[in-house]
Amino acid sequence: QVQLVESGGGLVQPGGSLRLSCAASGSILDYFTIGWFRQAPGKEREGVSCINRGDGSTYYADSVKGRFTISRDNAKNTVYLHMNSLKPEDPDVYYCAAGFIASLDGAYYSSWGQGTQVTVSS
Prior knowledge:
Oligomer: single chain
Shape: globular
Largest sheet: 7 strands, mixed
Radius of gyration: 13 Å
Number of strands: 11
Order of helices and strands: EEEEEEEEEEE
């Protein structure tokens, strides 16, 4: 079972930036696709971005294209989500997950972190 730990959430003003981290247990980034998801209270989970195992190709939801960037550091077993131009409607809890298919559908991911909260407010 892959273990993932998110960090980096917090309170940021509209238009601000945050960098989320997803630290994985062991050297798994060549073997697992890592996805970032988010969920606001009372709303469905939304796929935000993912980075493919192996070639590192990246994918983004339309709602974050041009604002968010996913990257990985294999030496640190960590995937990052760089979030710029944050909006009040960018939902609250962000999760990372590990799977085998590059998809923004959470059904393709089997291991999940505990989440980190992002609040965008003035």
